[in-house]
Amino acid sequence: MVQIRIHGRGGQGVVTAAELIAMAAFADGKISQAFPSFGVERTGAPIEAFARIDNKPIRTREHVYHPDVLIIQDPTLLDSVDVAKGCDNNTLVIINTAKLKKEIKINLPPKNIFNVDATKIALAIIGKNLVNTTILGAFAKATGYVSLNSLEKAIKEKFKDKGESIITKNINAIRQSYKL
Question: GO: which molecular function terms (predicted)?
Protein backbone atom coordinates (compact mmCIF):
# COMPACT_ATOMS: atom_id res chain seq x y z
CA MET A 1 0.00 0.00 0.00
CA VAL A 2 1.17 3.50 -0.86
CA GLN A 3 0.45 6.12 1.79
CA ILE A 4 0.44 9.82 0.93
CA ARG A 5 0.30 12.79 3.28
CA ILE A 6 -0.41 16.27 1.97
CA HIS A 7 0.44 19.43 3.90
CA GLY A 8 -0.93 22.86 3.14
CA ARG A 9 -3.05 25.62 4.55
CA GLY A 10 -6.79 25.93 4.81
CA GLY A 11 -8.20 27.23 1.56
CA GLN A 12 -5.39 25.84 -0.62
CA GLY A 13 -7.30 22.78 -1.78
CA VAL A 14 -5.38 20.21 0.28
CA VAL A 15 -8.46 18.03 0.71
CA THR A 16 -9.29 18.31 -2.98
CA ALA A 17 -5.74 17.21 -3.87
CA ALA A 18 -6.16 14.04 -1.79
CA GLU A 19 -9.53 13.37 -3.40
CA LEU A 20 -8.08 13.84 -6.88
CA ILE A 21 -5.28 11.37 -6.12
CA ALA A 22 -7.83 8.80 -4.96
CA MET A 23 -10.08 9.41 -7.97
CA ALA A 24 -7.13 9.10 -10.37
CA ALA A 25 -5.95 5.87 -8.73
CA PHE A 26 -9.48 4.48 -8.99
CA ALA A 27 -9.55 5.45 -12.69
CA ASP A 28 -6.30 3.48 -13.06
CA GLY A 29 -8.08 0.41 -11.65
CA LYS A 30 -6.68 0.60 -8.13
CA ILE A 31 -8.31 0.73 -4.71
CA SER A 32 -7.97 4.13 -3.08
CA GLN A 33 -9.13 6.35 -0.25
CA ALA A 34 -8.78 9.99 0.69
CA PHE A 35 -9.67 11.89 3.84
CA PRO A 36 -8.77 15.13 5.62
CA SER A 37 -7.53 15.92 9.09
CA PHE A 38 -8.75 19.21 10.44
CA GLY A 39 -11.01 20.51 13.12
CA VAL A 40 -11.98 24.11 13.58
CA GLU A 41 -9.09 25.43 11.51
CA ARG A 42 -9.76 28.39 9.32
CA THR A 43 -8.35 29.73 6.10
CA GLY A 44 -4.58 29.88 6.32
CA ALA A 45 -4.21 27.41 9.20
CA PRO A 46 -2.00 24.34 8.60
CA ILE A 47 -3.96 21.25 7.61
CA GLU A 48 -3.26 17.75 6.38
CA ALA A 49 -5.06 15.38 4.07
CA PHE A 50 -4.27 11.78 3.28
CA ALA A 51 -4.59 9.33 0.41
CA ARG A 52 -3.89 5.63 0.10
CA ILE A 53 -3.49 3.52 -3.04
CA ASP A 54 -3.39 -0.26 -3.22
CA ASN A 55 -4.28 -3.18 -5.44
CA LYS A 56 -6.34 -4.82 -2.71
CA PRO A 57 -8.97 -3.51 -0.29
CA ILE A 58 -7.74 -0.92 2.20
CA ARG A 59 -8.91 -1.72 5.72
CA THR A 60 -7.17 0.98 7.73
CA ARG A 61 -8.79 4.36 8.31
CA GLU A 62 -6.16 5.95 10.52
CA HIS A 63 -4.10 9.01 9.65
CA VAL A 64 -0.95 8.49 7.60
CA TYR A 65 1.83 8.53 10.17
CA HIS A 66 4.59 7.07 7.99
CA PRO A 67 4.08 8.38 4.45
CA ASP A 68 5.66 6.91 1.36
CA VAL A 69 5.03 10.26 -0.33
CA LEU A 70 4.90 13.68 1.27
CA ILE A 71 3.33 16.52 -0.72
CA ILE A 72 3.98 20.02 0.58
CA GLN A 73 1.79 22.63 -1.10
CA ASP A 74 3.00 25.55 1.02
CA PRO A 75 6.76 25.70 1.65
CA THR A 76 6.32 28.21 4.52
CA LEU A 77 5.11 25.25 6.59
CA LEU A 78 8.72 24.03 6.79
CA ASP A 79 9.35 26.84 9.30
CA SER A 80 6.36 26.11 11.53
CA VAL A 81 5.26 22.46 11.19
CA ASP A 82 7.27 19.23 11.41
CA VAL A 83 6.11 18.07 7.99
CA ALA A 84 8.75 15.32 7.90
CA LYS A 85 7.47 13.67 11.09
CA GLY A 86 7.20 9.92 10.49
CA CYS A 87 9.14 10.06 7.23
CA ASP A 88 12.19 7.92 6.54
CA ASN A 89 14.99 7.87 3.98
CA ASN A 90 12.66 6.27 1.42
CA THR A 91 9.92 8.90 1.64
CA LEU A 92 9.52 10.88 -1.58
CA VAL A 93 8.86 14.59 -1.18
CA ILE A 94 7.01 16.67 -3.74
CA ILE A 95 7.30 20.32 -2.72
CA ASN A 96 5.99 23.54 -4.18
CA THR A 97 9.02 25.80 -4.19
CA ALA A 98 11.25 27.80 -6.50
CA LYS A 99 14.24 26.91 -4.30
CA LEU A 100 16.95 24.47 -5.30
CA LYS A 101 17.02 21.11 -3.51
CA LYS A 102 20.07 22.09 -1.46
CA GLU A 103 18.19 25.17 -0.17
CA ILE A 104 15.18 23.21 1.08
CA LYS A 105 15.35 22.76 4.85
CA ILE A 106 13.94 19.29 5.38
CA ASN A 107 15.77 16.41 7.00
CA LEU A 108 15.35 13.94 4.13
CA PRO A 109 17.74 12.83 1.37
CA PRO A 110 17.98 15.36 -1.48
CA LYS A 111 17.63 12.52 -4.01
CA ASN A 112 14.07 11.97 -2.73
CA ILE A 113 13.03 15.61 -3.12
CA PHE A 114 11.14 16.76 -6.21
CA ASN A 115 10.75 20.51 -6.26
CA VAL A 116 8.39 22.24 -8.64
CA ASP A 117 7.40 25.90 -8.70
CA ALA A 118 3.70 25.07 -8.73
CA THR A 119 2.88 28.62 -7.64
CA LYS A 120 4.47 30.08 -10.77
CA ILE A 121 2.65 27.58 -13.00
CA ALA A 122 -0.70 28.11 -11.25
CA LEU A 123 -0.44 31.90 -11.48
CA ALA A 124 0.48 31.72 -15.17
CA ILE A 125 -2.14 29.18 -16.23
CA ILE A 126 -4.96 29.26 -13.68
CA GLY A 127 -4.55 32.91 -12.74
CA LYS A 128 -4.61 32.20 -8.99
CA ASN A 129 -2.20 30.77 -6.45
CA LEU A 130 -4.07 27.45 -6.25
CA VAL A 131 -1.39 24.82 -6.48
CA ASN A 132 -3.33 21.73 -5.42
CA THR A 133 -3.95 20.44 -8.94
CA THR A 134 -0.72 21.79 -10.37
CA ILE A 135 1.49 19.90 -7.92
CA LEU A 136 -0.31 16.64 -8.75
CA GLY A 137 1.28 16.63 -12.20
CA ALA A 138 4.68 16.52 -10.50
CA PHE A 139 3.37 13.82 -8.13
CA ALA A 140 2.28 11.65 -11.08
CA LYS A 141 5.60 12.10 -12.88
CA ALA A 142 7.83 11.54 -9.82
CA THR A 143 6.00 8.52 -8.45
CA GLY A 144 4.11 6.82 -11.28
CA TYR A 145 1.38 5.93 -8.76
CA VAL A 146 -1.28 7.53 -10.96
CA SER A 147 -1.24 8.27 -14.66
CA LEU A 148 -1.50 11.72 -16.17
CA ASN A 149 -4.54 10.51 -18.10
CA SER A 150 -6.30 9.41 -14.91
CA LEU A 151 -5.53 12.76 -13.25
CA GLU A 152 -7.14 14.52 -16.19
CA LYS A 153 -10.23 12.30 -15.83
CA ALA A 154 -10.37 13.05 -12.10
CA ILE A 155 -10.19 16.80 -12.74
CA LYS A 156 -12.96 16.60 -15.34
CA GLU A 157 -15.17 14.69 -12.90
CA LYS A 158 -14.39 16.76 -9.79
CA PHE A 159 -14.74 20.13 -11.53
CA LYS A 160 -17.56 19.28 -13.97
CA ASP A 161 -19.85 21.87 -12.35
CA LYS A 162 -17.22 24.64 -12.45
CA GLY A 163 -17.16 24.97 -16.23
CA GLU A 164 -14.94 24.00 -19.12
CA SER A 165 -12.56 26.92 -18.64
CA ILE A 166 -11.64 25.84 -15.07
CA ILE A 167 -11.20 22.24 -16.19
CA THR A 168 -8.97 23.22 -19.11
CA LYS A 169 -6.80 25.51 -16.98
CA ASN A 170 -6.28 22.84 -14.31
CA ILE A 171 -5.46 20.16 -16.88
CA ASN A 172 -2.96 22.49 -18.57
CA ALA A 173 -1.38 23.22 -15.17
CA ILE A 174 -0.92 19.53 -14.30
CA ARG A 175 0.50 18.87 -17.75
CA GLN A 176 3.02 21.68 -17.28
CA SER A 177 4.22 20.43 -13.88
CA TYR A 178 4.30 16.86 -15.22
CA LYS A 179 6.76 18.00 -17.92
CA LEU A 180 9.07 19.51 -15.32
Answer: 3-methyl-2-oxobutanoate dehydrogenase (ferredoxin) activity; pyruvate synthase activity
